Predict the 3D structure of the following.
Amino acid sequence: MVTIKDVARVAGVSTSTVSRVVRKEGKVGKACRAKVQKVIDELGYRPNINAQALVNKKSKTLGVIVPNVSMSFFGTLACGAEREAKAQGYRLLISNAFGDEKAELEALDSLMQHRCEIIVMHSVHTPDETLCELAEKIPGLVFINRFIAKIAHRCVWLDNTRGAQEATQFLLTAGHKDIAVITRKDMNHDAQSRLDGIGMALSSAGIKLEKDAIVEAEANMDGGRIAVKELMAKGDKFSAILVYNDNMAIGVVHELNACGLKVPEDVSVIGFDDLLISVACLPQLTTMHYPIEEMARYASKLAIELSDQDGSAVRTHLFMPHLVNRGSVLDISST
């Protein structure tokens, strides 16, 4: 394997000069820099990142913790983080935290063991108090899709309540009054915020969100299918369904079709997230756009900034969703 000493010997310079060229830091003459870079390219030298971290006491690594990167939502999040990392000259490490507080903390510990102290963490299960304690110890730790008032300057989050209100108001304006809701079974903060937003919008229209109109299911396509079966079994009237996310909404559309109901002619459907899958079904899904890639880029940049500061500045990092109107909602206001 080619070492920094090999490059220095062939280029006729010191190892410290080669190091400055690699890091793109320090004073190196233009001609010398070009000569050293040519040798680096010819020999195929690759710097030892771990060794650099030991010398600099800091790793040029950005860590991302998500529940499951194989899910399209979190894959998009990771993609946004990687794009920002590359733009800032960092490499990316991804750690999956499959489903509980212990896994989340183990994922964080694993990144720290790799000298990664600039981290964007999507935490669902770890308590606020624990995350606040971690934030005090790790200057470059930022939380995405989570709001904690005490460390708001480290949180990048979405206004789920406003998004649900907008989706509900869209249905109301289209003439829908009999609206069913399908949410996730393991009720997290996002799900509760969206239910709150739906309730607020309906209440403003003089409509009460009845418990029987709400069905809980797993947050995937099969969950959407099962939820529709439960709604149909109840026998209650509904002309539209608000669904927790796009994956569930696709399952809802499929099951409605299986039951002989057309979307949107018989039942209108709105999802949430605006994943790529939302345009891969018939009809294409009307949904709330969740700017998760943009949020991930922003959170990554923020984590890098905070790692070089004391993290005391009070800033808020709130993003807003917006409705994407496609083909799964029928306007019945004139009927």
